[in-house]
Sequence to fold (256 residues):
Amino acid sequence: MDYRTVCAWDYQPMKQIAFLPLDDRPVNYDYPQILARSAGLEALLPPREWLGNPWRPSQHEKLVDWLRQVSDQVEGMIVAVDTLAYGGLIRMRISDEPYDSVHSRLSVLREIKMDHPSQKIIASSVIQRVCRSNSSEEEKPYWAIYGTRLFRFSYLQHKSALQEASPEELHELAALKTEIPDEIIQDYTQIRRRNHAVNRLMIDWVEEGLLDYLLLPQDDTADYGWNIAEARLLQSDIRRRGLTGRAITYPGADEI
Fold:
């Protein structure tokens, strides 16, 4: 017997949404499916092996094809920009690809919105962390030697820019600048500038109407640092454009 004839109400299929996660961890892949079902939705996800993790980037072309395919059947999308742009959270921190290459990878979102104007697209784009330990497990190789000093340099440089650093801290900042090779600082800040530009672009897309909502998660924060300075710039930009109802920063990134 068809159980739908037994129920006192008509059976209604679940609404479907497409979900492109940040990576393949359970908190990003499994839990959202459970959460969607509890809200009466069916979340469609790409195969897990197409997503990135600490040892491999995501498979961009397959994910783009998947997004195009499911766009015809879903009512909305939730997209981790870092997966599309860089290949995942870890790749966002270590990739040397120029901004133009990263930007081109995101063009599928514009394409989908143009083909399906009424479809809602919610995006997340992580504000890059400044790791505070000497570990290159999820960072560039030089982080194993200079990680703690880079974190402290970032912290003190931001605090100094706000004119809140003590004389002792200014002395420490000057010493750190001589201890960390210029090419390392240049390499790291260049990556940060690219990633910050992508976050600014996402705010542009909210204003343009390509994105319906934007979440900018802050990965591993402190009181001061380059990441904190970037977050404040993004918050100011959101307020200036009158987008506070459609774009926010959020403390935390792994659970996005």
Notes: The first strand starts at residue 15 and ends at 20.
